[in-house]
Design a protein that fits this description.
The protein is of the alpha/beta class. It has a domain at 269-428: Glycogen Phosphorylase B (Rossmann fold). Helices cover 39% and strands 15% of the residues. It has helices at residues 17-31, 81-94, 110-117, 152-156, 168-184, 189-195, 211-235, 245-252, 269-272, 300-309, 312-316, 330-340, 353-361, 378-385, 396-403, 416-428, 447-464, and strands at residues 2-7, 35-42, 52-57, 60-66, 98-101, 122-125, 238-241, 260-262, 286-291, 318-323, 346-348, 365-368, 389-393, 408-411. The strands form two sheets. The chain has an eight-stranded mixed beta sheet with strand order 3-4-2-1-5-6-7-8, sandwiched between helices. Strands 11-10-9-12-13-14 form a six-stranded parallel beta sheet, with helices on both faces. Strand 10 (318-323), helix 12 (330-340) and strand 11 form a beta-alpha-beta unit. Helix 10 crosses helix 16 (416-428). The longest helix is centred in the middle third of the chain and has 25 residues, at 211-235. It is globular. The relative contact order is 0.12.
Length: 475
Protein backbone atom coordinates (compact mmCIF):
# COMPACT_ATOMS: atom_id res chain seq x y z
CA UNK A 1 0.00 0.00 0.00
CA UNK A 2 1.15 3.54 -0.78
CA UNK A 3 -0.14 6.26 1.56
CA UNK A 4 0.17 9.97 0.73
CA UNK A 5 0.03 12.10 3.87
CA UNK A 6 -1.22 15.68 3.40
CA UNK A 7 -0.58 18.20 6.15
CA UNK A 8 -0.05 21.94 6.51
CA UNK A 9 3.38 21.53 8.09
CA UNK A 10 5.77 18.62 8.57
CA UNK A 11 8.85 18.13 10.74
CA UNK A 12 11.30 19.64 11.15
CA UNK A 13 9.52 22.78 9.89
CA UNK A 14 6.45 22.05 12.01
CA UNK A 15 6.45 20.17 15.31
CA UNK A 16 3.05 20.96 16.80
CA UNK A 17 0.33 18.40 17.45
CA UNK A 18 -1.03 17.66 13.97
CA UNK A 19 2.42 17.61 12.38
CA UNK A 20 3.83 15.28 15.03
CA UNK A 21 0.75 13.06 14.73
CA UNK A 22 1.27 12.73 10.96
CA UNK A 23 5.03 12.09 11.27
CA UNK A 24 4.50 9.49 14.00
CA UNK A 25 2.02 7.61 11.83
CA UNK A 26 4.41 7.83 8.86
CA UNK A 27 7.10 6.13 10.92
CA UNK A 28 4.67 3.48 12.16
CA UNK A 29 3.48 2.77 8.61
CA UNK A 30 7.02 2.46 7.27
CA UNK A 31 7.89 -0.02 10.02
CA UNK A 32 5.07 -2.16 8.62
CA UNK A 33 6.42 -1.97 5.07
CA UNK A 34 3.90 0.64 3.88
CA UNK A 35 5.18 3.13 1.31
CA UNK A 36 4.68 6.70 2.54
CA UNK A 37 4.97 10.08 0.82
CA UNK A 38 4.13 13.53 2.18
CA UNK A 39 2.60 16.65 0.63
CA UNK A 40 2.98 19.70 2.84
CA UNK A 41 3.34 23.47 2.85
CA UNK A 42 6.25 25.56 4.04
CA UNK A 43 6.77 29.29 4.53
CA UNK A 44 10.15 30.40 3.19
CA UNK A 45 10.52 33.88 1.71
CA UNK A 46 13.85 32.87 0.17
CA UNK A 47 11.88 30.66 -2.23
CA UNK A 48 9.31 31.67 -4.82
CA UNK A 49 5.69 31.66 -3.68
CA UNK A 50 3.91 28.42 -4.73
CA UNK A 51 7.12 26.86 -5.96
CA UNK A 52 7.57 23.14 -5.33
CA UNK A 53 10.56 21.51 -3.66
CA UNK A 54 11.42 17.97 -2.68
CA UNK A 55 13.35 16.63 0.26
CA UNK A 56 13.59 13.46 2.33
CA UNK A 57 12.78 13.43 6.04
CA UNK A 58 14.24 10.26 7.51
CA UNK A 59 13.23 7.78 4.84
CA UNK A 60 10.07 9.64 3.81
CA UNK A 61 9.88 11.62 0.53
CA UNK A 62 8.42 15.05 1.23
CA UNK A 63 7.01 17.42 -1.41
CA UNK A 64 6.80 21.02 -0.17
CA UNK A 65 4.62 23.76 -1.62
CA UNK A 66 5.96 27.17 -0.65
CA UNK A 67 3.14 29.31 0.73
CA UNK A 68 4.42 32.72 1.81
CA UNK A 69 0.89 34.05 2.40
CA UNK A 70 1.09 36.21 -0.70
CA UNK A 71 -2.56 35.67 -1.58
CA UNK A 72 -4.55 38.71 -2.67
CA UNK A 73 -7.98 37.02 -2.49
CA UNK A 74 -9.27 35.69 0.85
CA UNK A 75 -10.78 32.73 -0.98
CA UNK A 76 -7.26 31.46 -1.65
CA UNK A 77 -6.94 30.73 2.06
CA UNK A 78 -9.22 27.72 1.60
CA UNK A 79 -9.47 27.07 -2.16
CA UNK A 80 -6.37 27.71 -4.26
CA UNK A 81 -6.48 26.30 -7.83
CA UNK A 82 -2.70 26.55 -8.22
CA UNK A 83 -2.20 24.26 -5.22
CA UNK A 84 -4.89 21.93 -6.60
CA UNK A 85 -2.92 21.64 -9.84
CA UNK A 86 0.27 20.81 -7.95
CA UNK A 87 -1.54 18.18 -5.93
CA UNK A 88 -3.15 16.70 -9.04
CA UNK A 89 0.22 16.32 -10.75
CA UNK A 90 1.63 14.63 -7.66
CA UNK A 91 -1.32 12.25 -7.45
CA UNK A 92 -0.84 11.33 -11.11
CA UNK A 93 2.86 10.77 -10.53
CA UNK A 94 2.64 8.73 -7.33
CA UNK A 95 -0.75 7.08 -7.72
CA UNK A 96 -1.14 6.47 -3.98
CA UNK A 97 -3.68 3.88 -2.89
CA UNK A 98 -5.08 6.21 -0.24
CA UNK A 99 -4.58 9.82 0.87
CA UNK A 100 -4.51 10.69 4.56
CA UNK A 101 -5.41 14.36 5.03
CA UNK A 102 -4.29 15.76 8.38
CA UNK A 103 -4.73 19.45 7.58
CA UNK A 104 -5.46 21.68 4.58
CA UNK A 105 -4.39 24.99 6.08
CA UNK A 106 -1.93 26.71 3.67
CA UNK A 107 -3.00 24.18 1.01
CA UNK A 108 -6.51 23.87 -0.51
CA UNK A 109 -9.77 21.94 -0.12
CA UNK A 110 -9.49 21.35 -3.87
CA UNK A 111 -7.09 18.52 -2.98
CA UNK A 112 -10.19 16.58 -1.93
CA UNK A 113 -11.74 17.16 -5.37
CA UNK A 114 -8.50 16.06 -7.05
CA UNK A 115 -8.62 12.79 -5.11
CA UNK A 116 -12.28 12.23 -5.91
CA UNK A 117 -11.73 12.81 -9.65
CA UNK A 118 -9.03 10.12 -9.63
CA UNK A 119 -10.98 7.65 -7.53
CA UNK A 120 -8.41 7.81 -4.71
CA UNK A 121 -10.03 7.28 -1.30
CA UNK A 122 -9.38 9.77 1.48
CA UNK A 123 -9.00 9.35 5.21
CA UNK A 124 -9.19 12.69 7.07
CA UNK A 125 -8.21 13.56 10.63
CA UNK A 126 -9.81 16.62 12.20
CA UNK A 127 -7.23 17.92 14.66
CA UNK A 128 -9.03 21.23 15.15
CA UNK A 129 -11.96 23.24 13.73
CA UNK A 130 -10.38 24.71 10.59
CA UNK A 131 -13.14 23.33 8.38
CA UNK A 132 -15.43 25.86 10.06
CA UNK A 133 -13.19 28.53 11.57
CA UNK A 134 -10.98 30.54 9.23
CA UNK A 135 -8.87 31.86 12.11
CA UNK A 136 -6.55 28.85 12.17
CA UNK A 137 -9.40 26.63 13.37
CA UNK A 138 -8.99 27.85 16.93
CA UNK A 139 -12.55 29.12 17.49
CA UNK A 140 -11.13 32.21 19.17
CA UNK A 141 -12.42 35.66 18.25
CA UNK A 142 -10.05 38.57 17.80
CA UNK A 143 -11.38 39.92 21.11
CA UNK A 144 -10.04 36.79 22.84
CA UNK A 145 -13.42 35.23 23.56
CA UNK A 146 -14.24 31.64 22.67
CA UNK A 147 -16.62 30.92 19.80
CA UNK A 148 -18.59 27.76 20.54
CA UNK A 149 -19.96 27.79 16.99
CA UNK A 150 -19.18 29.56 13.72
CA UNK A 151 -21.47 32.57 13.34
CA UNK A 152 -20.63 34.34 10.06
CA UNK A 153 -21.85 37.69 11.43
CA UNK A 154 -19.43 37.35 14.34
CA UNK A 155 -16.71 36.22 11.91
CA UNK A 156 -17.24 39.53 10.12
CA UNK A 157 -16.01 41.39 13.20
CA UNK A 158 -13.03 39.02 13.62
CA UNK A 159 -11.55 38.27 10.20
CA UNK A 160 -10.66 41.87 9.22
CA UNK A 161 -7.89 41.71 11.85
CA UNK A 162 -6.81 38.18 10.92
CA UNK A 163 -3.35 38.14 9.26
CA UNK A 164 -4.40 35.89 6.37
CA UNK A 165 -1.92 37.51 3.97
CA UNK A 166 1.45 39.20 4.19
CA UNK A 167 1.62 42.98 4.07
CA UNK A 168 2.66 44.62 0.82
CA UNK A 169 6.00 45.47 2.44
CA UNK A 170 6.56 41.84 3.40
CA UNK A 171 5.67 40.76 -0.14
CA UNK A 172 8.28 43.11 -1.57
CA UNK A 173 10.86 41.82 0.90
CA UNK A 174 10.01 38.24 0.01
CA UNK A 175 10.39 38.79 -3.72
CA UNK A 176 13.72 40.54 -3.16
CA UNK A 177 15.09 37.82 -0.87
CA UNK A 178 14.06 35.07 -3.30
CA UNK A 179 15.67 36.90 -6.22
CA UNK A 180 18.89 37.47 -4.24
CA UNK A 181 19.12 33.84 -3.20
CA UNK A 182 18.45 32.66 -6.74
CA UNK A 183 21.18 34.90 -8.15
CA UNK A 184 23.85 34.65 -5.46
CA UNK A 185 22.89 31.90 -3.03
CA UNK A 186 22.79 34.41 -0.16
CA UNK A 187 19.81 33.75 2.13
CA UNK A 188 18.50 36.69 4.17
CA UNK A 189 15.15 35.06 4.93
CA UNK A 190 15.81 34.45 8.63
CA UNK A 191 16.26 37.98 9.99
CA UNK A 192 13.94 39.61 7.46
CA UNK A 193 11.10 37.15 7.95
CA UNK A 194 11.33 37.73 11.70
CA UNK A 195 11.16 41.48 11.10
CA UNK A 196 8.01 41.15 9.01
CA UNK A 197 6.42 38.27 10.85
CA UNK A 198 2.73 38.48 11.59
CA UNK A 199 0.59 36.06 13.51
CA UNK A 200 -2.48 35.46 15.63
CA UNK A 201 -1.96 36.81 19.10
CA UNK A 202 0.35 39.70 18.29
CA UNK A 203 -2.07 42.03 20.04
CA UNK A 204 -4.59 41.40 22.84
CA UNK A 205 -7.53 42.61 20.79
CA UNK A 206 -8.58 44.12 17.50
CA UNK A 207 -10.06 47.40 16.38
CA UNK A 208 -13.73 47.32 15.45
CA UNK A 209 -13.96 46.99 11.64
CA UNK A 210 -15.99 49.34 9.49
CA UNK A 211 -19.56 48.09 8.88
CA UNK A 212 -18.94 47.49 5.19
CA UNK A 213 -15.78 45.53 5.87
CA UNK A 214 -17.51 43.45 8.54
CA UNK A 215 -20.37 42.63 6.17
CA UNK A 216 -17.97 41.62 3.40
CA UNK A 217 -16.05 39.26 5.66
CA UNK A 218 -19.29 37.86 7.09
CA UNK A 219 -20.34 36.93 3.56
CA UNK A 220 -16.93 35.35 2.91
CA UNK A 221 -17.14 33.35 6.15
CA UNK A 222 -20.57 32.04 5.21
CA UNK A 223 -19.40 31.09 1.70
CA UNK A 224 -16.28 29.43 3.12
CA UNK A 225 -18.28 27.35 5.56
CA UNK A 226 -20.71 26.20 2.87
CA UNK A 227 -18.08 25.46 0.23
CA UNK A 228 -15.80 23.51 2.54
CA UNK A 229 -18.69 21.39 3.84
CA UNK A 230 -19.73 20.69 0.24
CA UNK A 231 -16.18 19.74 -0.78
CA UNK A 232 -15.82 17.36 2.18
CA UNK A 233 -19.22 15.74 1.72
CA UNK A 234 -18.69 15.29 -2.04
CA UNK A 235 -15.31 13.63 -1.47
CA UNK A 236 -16.89 11.12 0.95
CA UNK A 237 -13.78 10.68 3.08
CA UNK A 238 -13.72 8.59 6.21
CA UNK A 239 -13.16 11.18 8.93
CA UNK A 240 -11.24 10.29 12.08
CA UNK A 241 -12.21 12.29 15.17
CA UNK A 242 -9.74 12.20 18.07
CA UNK A 243 -12.55 13.26 20.45
CA UNK A 244 -16.21 12.21 20.42
CA UNK A 245 -17.58 15.70 21.12
CA UNK A 246 -16.33 16.87 17.72
CA UNK A 247 -19.01 14.88 15.87
CA UNK A 248 -21.92 16.99 17.07
CA UNK A 249 -20.01 20.19 16.32
CA UNK A 250 -19.14 19.26 12.74
CA UNK A 251 -22.61 17.89 11.98
CA UNK A 252 -24.05 21.23 13.12
CA UNK A 253 -21.69 22.91 10.65
CA UNK A 254 -22.72 20.83 7.64
CA UNK A 255 -20.49 17.72 7.60
CA UNK A 256 -22.33 14.43 7.02
CA UNK A 257 -22.51 12.40 10.23
CA UNK A 258 -22.03 9.03 8.54
CA UNK A 259 -18.48 10.00 7.56
CA UNK A 260 -17.18 9.98 11.15
CA UNK A 261 -15.25 7.36 13.09
CA UNK A 262 -13.72 7.86 16.51
CA UNK A 263 -10.07 7.08 17.22
CA UNK A 264 -8.36 8.61 20.28
CA UNK A 265 -4.91 10.06 19.70
CA UNK A 266 -1.99 7.76 20.34
CA UNK A 267 0.56 8.18 23.09
CA UNK A 268 4.18 7.18 23.41
CA UNK A 269 3.71 5.43 26.74
CA UNK A 270 7.37 4.59 27.11
CA UNK A 271 8.41 8.23 26.70
CA UNK A 272 5.62 9.44 28.99
CA UNK A 273 6.89 7.25 31.84
CA UNK A 274 10.61 7.26 31.05
CA UNK A 275 11.30 9.23 34.23
CA UNK A 276 10.93 7.32 37.51
CA UNK A 277 8.12 8.55 39.74
CA UNK A 278 9.30 10.90 42.49
CA UNK A 279 7.05 10.05 45.41
CA UNK A 280 5.96 12.81 47.73
CA UNK A 281 7.22 12.48 51.29
CA UNK A 282 4.65 12.34 54.14
CA UNK A 283 3.66 15.87 55.07
CA UNK A 284 5.22 17.36 51.94
CA UNK A 285 3.20 19.98 50.07
CA UNK A 286 0.96 18.85 47.21
CA UNK A 287 2.88 19.42 43.98
CA UNK A 288 0.63 21.21 41.46
CA UNK A 289 1.71 21.84 37.88
CA UNK A 290 0.47 23.66 34.79
CA UNK A 291 2.13 23.17 31.40
CA UNK A 292 1.02 25.23 28.41
CA UNK A 293 1.67 28.24 26.23
CA UNK A 294 1.34 31.42 28.27
CA UNK A 295 -1.47 33.07 26.32
CA UNK A 296 -4.90 34.11 27.63
CA UNK A 297 -6.93 31.27 26.11
CA UNK A 298 -4.80 28.71 27.98
CA UNK A 299 -6.17 30.17 31.22
CA UNK A 300 -3.05 30.52 33.39
CA UNK A 301 -4.48 33.76 34.81
CA UNK A 302 -7.60 31.89 35.94
CA UNK A 303 -5.40 29.43 37.82
CA UNK A 304 -3.37 32.20 39.49
CA UNK A 305 -6.61 33.97 40.44
CA UNK A 306 -7.99 30.75 41.95
CA UNK A 307 -4.73 30.12 43.81
CA UNK A 308 -4.99 33.56 45.37
CA UNK A 309 -8.49 32.71 46.61
CA UNK A 310 -7.21 29.77 48.63
CA UNK A 311 -6.77 30.32 52.32
CA UNK A 312 -3.21 30.74 53.58
CA UNK A 313 -3.42 27.39 55.36
CA UNK A 314 -4.35 25.60 52.12
CA UNK A 315 -1.62 27.38 50.16
CA UNK A 316 0.81 26.31 52.83
CA UNK A 317 -0.01 22.67 52.05
CA UNK A 318 0.56 22.99 48.29
CA UNK A 319 2.89 24.61 45.79
CA UNK A 320 2.14 25.59 42.20
CA UNK A 321 4.52 25.79 39.26
CA UNK A 322 3.53 27.10 35.82
CA UNK A 323 5.74 26.44 32.80
CA UNK A 324 5.31 27.42 29.17
CA UNK A 325 6.56 29.46 26.21
CA UNK A 326 6.38 33.13 27.13
CA UNK A 327 7.14 34.88 23.84
CA UNK A 328 3.67 35.00 22.27
CA UNK A 329 2.18 37.59 24.64
CA UNK A 330 4.95 39.30 26.63
CA UNK A 331 2.58 41.82 28.22
CA UNK A 332 0.25 39.03 29.34
CA UNK A 333 3.15 37.05 30.84
CA UNK A 334 4.44 40.11 32.68
CA UNK A 335 1.01 40.69 34.19
CA UNK A 336 0.72 37.00 35.06
CA UNK A 337 4.03 37.06 36.90
CA UNK A 338 3.02 40.18 38.82
CA UNK A 339 -0.15 38.44 39.99
CA UNK A 340 1.63 35.15 40.74
CA UNK A 341 4.43 36.45 42.94
CA UNK A 342 2.33 37.62 45.95
CA UNK A 343 0.55 34.25 46.19
CA UNK A 344 3.71 32.17 45.90
CA UNK A 345 3.23 30.83 42.37
CA UNK A 346 6.32 30.06 40.31
CA UNK A 347 6.09 31.00 36.60
CA UNK A 348 8.94 29.34 34.71
CA UNK A 349 10.08 28.98 31.15
CA UNK A 350 9.15 26.39 28.55
CA UNK A 351 10.29 22.82 29.24
CA UNK A 352 11.68 20.52 26.57
CA UNK A 353 10.29 17.02 26.14
CA UNK A 354 12.59 15.55 28.80
CA UNK A 355 11.76 18.43 31.11
CA UNK A 356 8.03 17.79 30.73
CA UNK A 357 8.51 14.13 31.66
CA UNK A 358 10.59 15.09 34.70
CA UNK A 359 8.09 17.71 35.82
CA UNK A 360 5.20 15.26 35.57
CA UNK A 361 7.15 12.56 37.40
CA UNK A 362 7.64 14.99 40.31
CA UNK A 363 4.03 16.29 40.40
CA UNK A 364 0.79 15.14 42.00
CA UNK A 365 -1.77 17.25 40.15
CA UNK A 366 -1.84 18.75 36.64
CA UNK A 367 -4.20 21.69 36.16
CA UNK A 368 -5.46 22.44 32.64
CA UNK A 369 -7.56 25.65 32.86
CA UNK A 370 -7.98 26.25 29.11
CA UNK A 371 -10.77 28.55 27.99
CA UNK A 372 -11.09 27.17 24.44
CA UNK A 373 -12.16 23.86 22.89
CA UNK A 374 -9.10 21.68 23.22
CA UNK A 375 -9.52 18.47 21.21
CA UNK A 376 -7.32 15.89 22.94
CA UNK A 377 -4.54 17.62 24.89
CA UNK A 378 -1.33 15.60 24.77
CA UNK A 379 -0.18 16.89 28.15
CA UNK A 380 -3.30 15.41 29.78
CA UNK A 381 -2.64 11.99 28.27
CA UNK A 382 1.00 12.17 29.33
CA UNK A 383 -0.05 13.07 32.86
CA UNK A 384 -2.46 10.14 32.89
CA UNK A 385 0.29 7.75 31.78
CA UNK A 386 2.63 9.17 34.43
CA UNK A 387 0.06 8.54 37.17
CA UNK A 388 -0.69 12.24 37.81
CA UNK A 389 -4.21 13.39 38.71
CA UNK A 390 -5.79 16.03 36.44
CA UNK A 391 -8.00 19.01 37.21
CA UNK A 392 -9.31 20.60 34.01
CA UNK A 393 -11.92 22.83 32.44
CA UNK A 394 -15.21 21.15 31.61
CA UNK A 395 -14.87 21.78 27.87
CA UNK A 396 -14.55 19.52 24.84
CA UNK A 397 -11.76 17.00 24.78
CA UNK A 398 -10.46 18.01 28.21
CA UNK A 399 -13.63 16.82 29.93
CA UNK A 400 -13.62 13.77 27.65
CA UNK A 401 -10.18 12.67 28.88
CA UNK A 402 -11.57 12.58 32.42
CA UNK A 403 -14.72 10.79 31.26
CA UNK A 404 -12.53 8.23 29.50
CA UNK A 405 -10.94 7.21 32.77
CA UNK A 406 -8.09 9.57 33.62
CA UNK A 407 -7.97 10.21 37.37
CA UNK A 408 -9.21 13.68 38.24
CA UNK A 409 -12.13 16.06 37.90
CA UNK A 410 -13.40 19.10 36.02
CA UNK A 411 -14.53 22.62 36.92
CA UNK A 412 -16.55 25.22 34.96
CA UNK A 413 -14.17 26.87 32.49
CA UNK A 414 -13.07 30.33 33.56
CA UNK A 415 -14.65 30.10 37.03
CA UNK A 416 -11.87 30.97 39.48
CA UNK A 417 -14.10 30.39 42.52
CA UNK A 418 -15.00 26.88 41.34
CA UNK A 419 -11.37 26.13 40.53
CA UNK A 420 -10.34 27.30 44.02
CA UNK A 421 -12.89 24.93 45.58
CA UNK A 422 -11.63 22.07 43.42
CA UNK A 423 -8.04 22.84 44.43
CA UNK A 424 -9.07 22.83 48.10
CA UNK A 425 -10.57 19.37 47.62
CA UNK A 426 -7.38 18.11 45.97
CA UNK A 427 -5.25 19.53 48.78
CA UNK A 428 -7.51 17.88 51.37
CA UNK A 429 -7.15 14.47 49.74
CA UNK A 430 -3.38 14.80 49.34
CA UNK A 431 -2.56 12.19 51.99
CA UNK A 432 -4.50 9.45 50.22
CA UNK A 433 -2.20 6.77 48.75
CA UNK A 434 -1.38 7.15 45.08
CA UNK A 435 -2.89 4.53 42.75
CA UNK A 436 -0.56 2.50 40.52
CA UNK A 437 0.32 3.94 37.13
CA UNK A 438 -2.33 3.00 34.54
CA UNK A 439 -1.77 0.86 31.47
CA UNK A 440 -2.77 1.55 27.82
CA UNK A 441 -6.44 1.13 26.93
CA UNK A 442 -8.60 1.76 23.86
CA UNK A 443 -9.19 5.30 25.18
CA UNK A 444 -5.47 5.85 25.74
CA UNK A 445 -3.80 3.73 23.07
CA UNK A 446 -0.22 3.26 22.02
CA UNK A 447 0.71 4.66 18.62
CA UNK A 448 1.08 1.20 17.13
CA UNK A 449 -2.59 0.51 17.87
CA UNK A 450 -3.57 3.79 16.21
CA UNK A 451 -1.47 2.96 13.14
CA UNK A 452 -3.15 -0.46 12.90
CA UNK A 453 -6.55 1.26 13.07
CA UNK A 454 -5.61 3.69 10.27
CA UNK A 455 -4.37 0.88 8.06
CA UNK A 456 -7.58 -1.13 8.63
CA UNK A 457 -9.66 1.89 7.61
CA UNK A 458 -7.38 2.46 4.62
CA UNK A 459 -7.70 -1.13 3.42
CA UNK A 460 -11.49 -0.87 3.67
CA UNK A 461 -11.53 2.38 1.73
CA UNK A 462 -9.31 0.96 -1.00
CA UNK A 463 -11.56 -2.09 -1.31
CA UNK A 464 -14.66 0.11 -1.57
CA UNK A 465 -13.19 2.68 -3.99
CA UNK A 466 -14.79 2.86 -7.45
CA UNK A 467 -12.60 2.01 -10.42
CA UNK A 468 -11.43 5.21 -12.13
CA UNK A 469 -8.89 5.33 -14.94
CA UNK A 470 -6.19 7.70 -13.63
CA UNK A 471 -4.94 10.33 -16.08
CA UNK A 472 -1.21 9.88 -15.68
CA UNK A 473 1.34 7.05 -15.69
CA UNK A 474 2.93 5.76 -12.52
CA UNK A 475 6.48 7.00 -12.27
Amino acid sequence: MHVLLVTHRYPPDGTAGAETYAATLAAEFERRGVEVSVLTAVKDIARRHLSVHRRVEGATPVVEVVNNLFATDFRATWDEPRVDAIAGELLDELRPDVVHVHHLLYLSVGILRACRERGIPVLMVLHDFWLGCARFGQLLHADGERCDAVDPARCGTCLPSFPWRQTDAARRVGRGVAALKGATGIDLSGPLSRRHRRGVGDAPGAAQPAPGEAAAFAALAKRRLEEIALAVNDARPRIVLPARFQAEWFVAHGIAEELFVHQPTGLDWDEARAEPRVEREPGEALRVLMLGTLVPHKGAHVLVDAWGRLGEESRGRARLRIHGPADSRPAYVEELRRAAAPVGVSVGERLDRRGVARALAASDLLVVPSLWLEVRPLVMMEAHAAGVRILCSDLGGMAEVIADGAAGSTFPAGDADALARALEAEIDRAEEPSPPRPEPTAAFPRWDAVADSFLRHSAELVAEAPAVDPPGPRS
